[in-house]
Amino acid sequence: QVQLQESGGGSVQAGGSLRLSCSISELPYMSTCMGWFRQAPGKEREGVASLYSGGSTYYTDAVKGRFTISQDNAKNTLYLQMNSLKPEDTAMYYCAAGWYGGNWDSQHAYKYWGQGTQVTVSS
Predict the structure, then answer these.
(1) How far is 21 from 5, CA to CA, in rounded Å?
(2) CB–CB of 114/95 below 8 Å?
């Protein structure tokens, strides 16, 4: 059973930075496509960023230029560097793996999920 574990969340002031990490138990699931999602209270889970095999990356418009997705295959870890954080970035952040195909920002496109890490940005 593939397991994903996020870490690195916390509380920061607007303008600050955080780096989220997602440790993955099985290397094969680092391949093809992996993603970061977030869900704020009362809102649907939304795709934040994805990383495809070969290095292509995609971001939702709200985080372009501020967030960077990357991976370290040697450590079986996916990262999300978040800079210039805004209060509207406040959410539970999840990593996802086991991509079925389709739109990278669809939560239904992934088989495996972590339990999430909370990010809170104060103004």
Answers:
(1) 8
(2) yes
97-118 pLDDT tens trace: 988 888 999 999 999 999 999 9
**Hey, what are 10's tokens?**
């916390």
β-pair type (46-52, 33-39): antiparallel
Tell which phi-psi region holds residue 27, choosing left (phi > 0), alpha (psi between -120 and 50) or beta: alpha
pLDDT bin (cut points 50, 70, 90) of residue 73 is confident
Q: What angle do CA 122, 79, 107 make, to 5 degrees?
A: 80
Spatial CA neighbour of 26 closest among 51, 52, 4: 4
The set of residues, in sequence order, having a beta carbon less than 8 Å from that of 54 and lying 6+ positions away, is none
